[in-house]
Design brief:
The protein is α/β, with parallel strands linked by helices. It has 13 helices and seven strands. α5 runs parallel beside α7.
């Protein structure tokens, strides 16, 4: 799958030779030894992270550190209590927690610390390329200026490339639960950073917020910013949202997209174009029906879904 810049998202180095099978052959006696060999291969092979929301990597310990630094009161007694809150039941429950975490991010150094901590962690896992989502509207609503979070993330990305060998591109997302007019105002600010932002995306609460709501926003981003588009679609919303993202927003990549299974024609189109990023974690969400989850490996066999280690929004990985 290509990255949003159009070239291959994978590094050029040739990985070590892969094991001949993902699981041992039937009757294989020493599964432990085979599992260790596979784990070694997974650790050593170069990786690309195509789906990562930087605000969602905020670990509870850092949340408390930044809250103390900035004088922000948190609704948790301890970092452990905050970690327990990540046992959420649906997407909205997670988003409520996600936006609370954003309140501790107030200064350039906060965004630097958050971004560099994530890049340092994945560098140890041999991740060579990261396409990093960020949500400007969450921070603008908290009184944080666009220049503040851009400076922190850019500085962290530069340091990570020089010190860790991790290449990072920034994808600015619009929050779909907010009005399109708010997205347009955010785009006004973002256009000053044409050289720093690689693409635009669409995330947040999907139900009731179809891609069609943002048609003009994406068109302007493409026309004036030269930015390709990606969009979360078909995570909670129906398969028609995926078609809208493709036809109306002209996206280069569909994120999640698991509801494509409701539309055989759409499945065939996604197999042909290979623009869907159906990571394994997309099928673990508790709000998905079992009949959707059960078909993941069929999509792998059809070369639509991909095995991946996308972190998405969860901390503690």
């Amino acid at each position: 799958m290509p990255g949003v810049g159009g070239s291959s998202c994978m590094p050029s180095e040739s990985p070590a030779e892969a094991p001949s099978a993902v699981v041992p052959p039937h009757g294989y006696a020493d599964f432990g030894a085979y599992a260790a060999k596979l784990a070694h291969f997974i650790q050593k092979v170069p990786k690309a992270e195509l789906h990562l929301h930087i605000e969602g990597t905020l670990e509870p310990e850092m949340m408390f550190l930044l809250a103390a630094r900035n004088g922000v009161a948190l609704p948790y007694a301890s970092a452990e209590d905050a970690r327990k809150a990540y046992d959420f039941e649906d997407l909205q429950s997670f988003l409520d927690l996600y936006y609370k975490g954003c309140s501790v991010l107030q200064h350039e150094q906060d965004f630097y610390d958050l971004t560099y901590a994530y890049l340092d962690k994945v560098a140890s896992q041999n991740v060579a390329h990261v396409e990093l989502f960020f949500d400007p509207q969450s921070h603008l609503a908290n009184g944080v200026g666009f220049a503040t979070f851009m400076a922190g993330m850019k500085r962290a990305a530069k340091d990570a490339e020089e010190k860790l060998g991790v290449d990072t591109t920034l994808i600015m997302c619009f929050l779909r639960h907010l009005p399109a007019e708010d997205a347009m105002k955010t785009l006004d600010l973002a256009l000053e950073y044409k050289d720093d932002i690689a693409a635009v995306g669409l995330d947040s609460s999907e139900l009731g917020n179809p891609p069609s709501k943002f048609t003009e926003v994406f068109k302007r981003a493409q026309d004036e910013g030269g930015w390709p588009g990606v969009a979360h679609a078909g995570e909670e919303g129906p398969a028609s949202y995926i078609w809208d993202a493709i036809r109306l927003l002209k996206v280069r990549r569909v994120d999640h997209g698991v509801r494509c299974l409701e539309d055989p024609e759409l499945v065939a189109y996604l197999i042909e174009t290979q623009i869907a990023e159906l990571a394994k974690n997309s099928f673990r969400a508790s709000f998905l029906p079992d009949e959707i989850k059960a078909h993941y490996y069929e999509l792998v066999d059809a070369q639509l879904a991909i095995f991946s280690a996308h972190i998405d929004k969860l901390t503690g990985v």
